[in-house]
Structures are given as structure tokens and as C-alpha cells.
Amino acid sequence: MQIITFLGFTILVALLSYLATRKTKENSSDGYFLGGRSLTAGVIAGSLLLTNLSTEQIVGLNGSAYTSGLSVMVWETLAAIAMVVTAVYLLPKYLKSGLTTVPGFLEKRFDVTTKTLTSILFLSGYVIVLLPVILYSGSLAISGMFDIPSLLGVTHTQSIWICVWGIGIIGSIYAVFGGLKAVAVSDSINAIGLLVGGVLIPFFGLLMIGDGSLSEGLNILVTENPEKFNSIGGSTDPVPFHTIFTGMMLVQLFYWGTNQQIIQRALGAKDLKEGQKGLLLASFIKILGPIIVVLPGLIAFHIFEGNLETADSAYPMLVKKVLPQEWVGFFAAVLFGAILSSFNSVLNSSVTLFGIDIYKQHIHKNANEKEVVKYGKTFGVILAIAAMCIAPLIANAGSLFDYLQEINGIYSIPILTIIFVGFVTKKVPAIAAKIGLISGCLLYIFSQFILQPYFQQTALEEAKLQGITNVTELNLIESSAYPHFLDVMAVLFILNIIIMLIIGKIKPRTTPYVQEYTAQVNISPWKYINEASILICAIVIGVYVYFS
Fold it and tell me: What domains are defined for the chain?
């Protein structure tokens, strides 16, 4: 019955996506890569939310909440403010230039080489880190929910390989052969299911704690675990409070404002009003995100009394514990949709970056739009296969969510830096952008993967020489031996800006940059954009203060 429910919901989503997109002309760049610039606010909001919310987030962030409590909600709440900034400031500039990709702006502002380097950075991050993490975390969840090893008589490792390739192949069909509109429509349908299914887990969890009473369950959870309900992160938490004002906001701005896999939905808006409304609707719903990606982790800590072997097993174990059997098929289908959403969204963005920024620019400059789409799809298939081969190999990466955020810093901060400087200055030259990209990547790699291990190892050796053997004390010493990666990001962001400004002072552009209006879509803003933005920011601050 569970498998029938699972297949039924999954096939329904695929059918509705096909019916909604069959008339979209996908032989053109705009038709395939941007859904014909026809996306409305609801579709944009649903696609944004589901692209962001997948198993690496649901499993990983709930695992962090299981360990560190409510302080990790900042990944959700601060995202709402970043989306407001994107809607008010960045999106009007993107649509004014009629962009298909974010690196396309860098070509206009700097030069072709800067655009190409940025596209390569995006693609490298997607295939090496993001796509494999999505596939692996999704496979863990699906394999666990359906007990694939017992069902098929295979080992745990073999079940992961099977699920990785199953998810990868289905996701590739959506992304490579359906285009952005198929991805966005399927996302919107799955978003509704995920919101319903995601809320069911804490609902049933609280009922279990409260012996059938929701309010009593919540009261017991808060009363017996008060240390978990503090929004202010300590020095040993994944997100110490001070990092909100250093690198956290930079990470959020990069993700929601410049990351191709996300902003591509808003670039496909039929006009600026729809794009802004879509972003703000998504940001408002994002404030409620902790109910799905934080609260279950707290419930799991209470139910299992903090005795689980790994924090990342908190969510799957809670689902298995509290969800009635008749709901398992539906929830697995919804979770499968979330996995597909993130996978096919990243893959579709990769196809876009390759087709527009690399194939058309460097391989075949005279290619027509049909050819660009064709070879973009071919690249997408190759990329998907590479990601499916890498995914099972990251089983020992540690906490998936923390791993993902730290590794992303290699390319996120350099790209955010040059986009920021590109927008706020007019005379900084292209050579400054190239140096900023290269120096940003190399400095971050040197900091996090050479200096950090050295300082941490040295601190641990000194502690052991002093006779310290307590594991908790040693972990504290190790975590405090080197600055938090979010602090490192902030320092490198400022350093990169200084480097670019100095180069701009020494060797400025001969003519100031002036942004041109391409008239691709209407860029009249939504008339309530300011009021809605202020309201959302006020709610975020209020929620944070209430739980402080």
C-alpha cells in the first residue's frame, strides 16, 4: 500500500507538470532556460521553497537542532531578510538587463572571461558538492523509509547506489528534457505536499509526547528542555550568535540573490511585479520553516533522550517512530519530490550555465538557439552521471548540512564579492574581478583546509600534553582553536573588496559602466513592495527576540 501511494502521488505530479508545460516552446533559450519568461508569483514562490528545502536541509538542519537547539533556526529566519533584499534591490537590476544567467551580468559589467570563470566555479561547486550531497542525503532517507536493503535483499551500500541512480535518472528527465517550467511546476505541486507532510511530523511527535494532546506535548517539550529553546547560539554551537553579523548574512545573500539555481526562478518571471511578489511570498513562508526543519529535531531529542548514535539520524528515526503507517507512502512521495526538486533545479541551472555561458560563448559562437539547448541537455546528462558516481562516496563527510555550507564558501564568497563590487562601483576594471575570484577561492581553501587543521591539531596536542582527556573539553578546545568559517568568510569578503577597489583606483575603466534596459519584461515594481518588506523584516526580528 505504501509503495502504491508513493507511486500514485509521484506519477500525478509528473502528469500535471507535463500538461502544464506541453505548450511551452523549449527550442528557444528563453523557453527552455526561463520557462518562456512566463512564471507567476505562486509558481516562483513554490519553486524557490522546494528548491531550497530538500533532504540535506530537512535531515541536516534537524540534526543540528537535535544537537544544538533552536539557535540553528537562523538559517531559515535570516533567509527571509535576504530574499527581501533580493526582491527590492537585485531583481530589478537583473530584469532590467534581461539576464538569463547571473554570470551574464558579469559579462556586461566586466568581460567575457570573468563570466566564464564564474560559470565554471558554479558548475564545479554543483557537480563536486551540491548535486552529490542532494543525491546521497535523499538516498539515505528513501532507503530508510522503505527499508530497501530488506526489500531487495541488498547491503546498505548497494541500496544507496540504487537510490542514487534512481533519483538521478528521474531528476534528469525533469531537468534536462523538461526545462525550467517543468521543474518549476513540479516544484509548486510538491511544495504543497511538503508543507503538509513536513508539518505532520512535529504534529504527530507532539501528540506522542503529550499522550494525545498537542498543547500538552508542546508544554512538556519546552518545560523539560528549556536549554534547547534559545535562539542565541553559543560559541560551540554551529551558528554562534555573533556570526549573524559577520558571514551568515553574506551566505544568505549569495544563496538567495546570486546563486543561479535559486535566482533563475525569479529571472523567469513574466514581469518584475510577479518576481517580487513571488520572492516575498516565499520569504514569508520561510519564516515558518523552523516548524519543519528545526522543531522535529527538538522533538527527537526529547523522545530519544539524546541517545541516538548520530545527529543526522534524528529526523529519519523520528519519522519512523511517530508517523502512522498509512501516511508513510504519501510522505515518502513528498520527500522524493523535494529531493527531485533540489536535484533537477541545480541540474537545470547547470545546463543553462553551460549552454549560454560556455557553449554559445566559446565552443560554437554561431550556434542557433536550438543547438544551444541541444548541447546544454547533453552536458546535463554528463553532469548528472558524474554526480551519481560521486554521491555514494561522501558517506563519511560528517554532518551533511555543515559540510555543505563550509565547502560552498570556496566559490560563494568570491562570486558574491565581484557581483557586489560590480553593482556598487562603475570604474573597477575586469582584471580586478578576475583577481578577486582567484584570490577569494585560494585564500578560503588555504584558510579552511590548511591553516584550520594545523591550528586545531596543535591545540589538541597541547591539551593532551597538559593531561586533558575529557572528550567534551577536547571538542571545545578544537572548535575554539580557529575562527568560525562564517567569520573567515566575512574577513575574506572585506579583503577581496579592498583588493578590487585598490586595483580600480590604480587602473580604472576608461569609461564608467552604465546598465542598459533591454525591455525583455516590464520592470515596474509591485506597489506594496516597501510595506511588505518592512513587515517581513519586523516579523523576523520579533521571532528572534521572542526566543532569545
Answer: 28-407+518-546 (1.20.1730.10)
